[in-house]
Amino acid sequence: MKDLAAQLATTMKQRHWNERYQKLLTQALKDPEVQQFLQDHQLQNNQNAVLAGSAAIYEFVQAKKTLTLATGYQPRLLWVNQAIHVSYEPDAAELRRQQKVVFQQKFKTLAMASDVRQADLDDYARGVNERQASYMAAVRFVIDYAKAPKTFLPGLYLSGPFGVGKTYLLSAIAKELVQQQVEVLLVHFPTLAVQMKNAINDNSVLTKIDQIKAVPILMLDDIGADALSSWVRDEVLGVILQYRLQEKLPTFFSSNFSMKDLEAHLTVNQRGDQEPIKAARIMERIRFLAREVVVSGPDRRFN
Ligand code: ADP
Ligand code: MG
Description:
Elements: H1 2-14, H2 19-29, H3 32-40, H4 47-52, H5 54-66, E1 73-80, E2 83-90, H6 92-106, E3 107-110, H7 121-125, H8 132-147, E4 155-159, H9 166-179, E5 184-188, H10 189-199, H11 205-213, E6 217-221, H12 230-247, E7 251-255, H13 259-267, H14 276-289, E8 290-294
Parallel strand pairs: 3-5, 4-7, 4-8, 5-6, 6-7
Antiparallel strand pairs: 1-2
Helix pairs in contact: 1-2, 2-5, 8-9, 11-12, 12-14, 13-14
The chain binds adenosine-5'-diphosphate and magnesium ion.
Adenosine-5'-diphosphate binds next to helix 7 and helix 9.
């Protein structure tokens, strides 16, 4: 390395390089990472390459000093097409930050508790035998969807009592999909129903439905938790499901009702009228879009 510095000094003098610049380059060449780089690429004796890359080398050493941790980027020397370049690459913390942003952009929720983002598929099954079937169904979906995202795959209809982890499992599936760059929207359905009724006042029902219906993976949480008006059932739920059926978009549900009991629930509207045909039409769509999986096990709410 000493040799190279000395040789370069001579060459720079011969070429009448600015003295200050000579000093800066000589200084930069002493940097241990620069020396390692030159060694790694066998450039110790390649004066021409080093002179041609002197601006990059100098910039690299400067950037190391001036880029603080806060920027999240690290300079790196590269040897590309027979020339030295500097590139700026995100460090580990910056990569984590960027992944988090992508995660937040891809994993959308409506009226869900913020802890849904912490759900994890591996944690879901741990230690509870009753969860094996729903866990396997979830894993199956994630794997099959990754293999062929363009072909229609039915989602899951998770049924079971309060507290067994249905919402948790939906969130855990969402997280897996989002990590594969798939956009997921997880919606608390009873809240959506209320928001839709309010949207009538400012004429934004259709816009709101449009925003929801076309997302690649839609999850409707807690369907059947409240009595539905005929309007929400047919003009909101029915319209969303019809679109997803036509476009063959996977859709997930969670409910305290089995599919059979949900049908009975949807049959009676808020005013107490019996509307079996309307309910059957909704159920037909749900059965096409998702397979029922019963979630059982202990109530997880109090531990
Ligand atoms: P459900 O939707 O079936 O009523 P939740 O998914 O809301 O049940 O689960 C009830 C509570 O237990 C929630 O606070 C949830 O975060 C927690 N929970 C469920 N499954 C797990 C798990 N595998 N690990 C940790 N917490 C869990
Ligand atoms: Mg729930």
